[in-house]
Amino acid sequence: MAHAVVGYPSLEVNWQMLEAMEAANVDLVELQLPFSEPIADGPTFVKANQAALHSQTHWEHYFALMSRAARRFSFPILFMGYYNSVFRMGEETFCDRLSHAGARGFIVADLPPEEAVGLNGHGRARGLDPILLMTPTNSPSRLTEIAAQASGFVYCVARKGVTGKRTEISDGVESFLGRCRKATKLPLALGFGIKTEQDVRTIKGLADIAIVGTACLEAWERGGRSGYTEFLSTLSRGRS
């Protein structure tokens, strides 16, 4: 699963990123709605969120891009963002907008499951999957609580902290994913620090989905469209 912050570097570049994702046979895409305090994100995404807001990226731009992408590309598209944006929009309106734009689900990174029951119900009523996060600090009982609210797949956070820092795929990650497997029959997606073809190869058999976010944006910033396209191609080779 690949990631893009809508509005950064620009909406036009976002479209080029999506075209490159399609060419690389990416399986899923999360589109992030920019927010002023993205607490789960590291410096690269914080900068991207701030720049997107500075350029006046609005909800209407976000949903227009999502709707256009859902019609054009074969991969499922998910919302990623923070609850303040959902709250300001209203949970039912938010779910209506996502459904009409062709989204398949949503990741609200800062909303705990016990406070997400209403939003998740509104989403499911509109055919949207709530994607919840499991972390290494969750107890077995907490993982079970999270699993009860999730659908589609679960987002397994490889380590404590924010996005961007490299994660060593160690016995700790394997043990964590084992606990997640006991809590749910849903597919497991592993994110936070997956950056290379070798990382993708390493988690085969441990997780079902590799989530690559920061490294994608860094590839664009280093090499533009050609560098980004090549980077996605190397990740795709890691699945074979």
Explain the layout of strands and helices.
Elements lengths: L1 E4 L5 H13 L5 E4 L10 H12 L4 H14 L4 E5 L1 H7 L1 H11 L3 E4 L8 H9 L3 E2 L2 E2 L5 H10 L4 E4 L13 H13 L4 E4 L5 H7 L5 E2 L3 H24 L3
Parallel strand pairs: 1-2, 2-3, 3-4, 4-5, 6-7, 7-8, 8-9
Helix pairs in contact: 1-10, 3-5, 4-5, 5-6, 7-8
Polypeptide structure, described:
- The protein has 240 residues and is of the alpha/beta class.
- The protein has a single domain, classed as Aldolase class I (TIM Barrel, Alpha-Beta Barrel).
- The chain is built from ten helices and nine strands.
- The chain has helices at 11-23, 43-54, 59-72, 83-89, 91-101, 117-125, 140-149, 171-183, 197-203, 214-237, and strands at residues 2-5, 29-32, 77-81, 105-108, 129-130, 133-134, 154-157, 188-191, 209-210.
- A five-stranded parallel β-sheet has the order 1-2-3-4-5. The chain has a four-stranded parallel β-sheet with strand order 6-7-8-9, with helices on one face.
- Strand 1, helix 1 and strand 2 form a beta-alpha-beta unit.
- Helix 4 packs across helix 5 (91-101) and helix 7 (140-149) crosses helix 8 (171-183).
- The two termini are 15 Å apart.
- Residues 160-167 have low confidence and may be disordered.
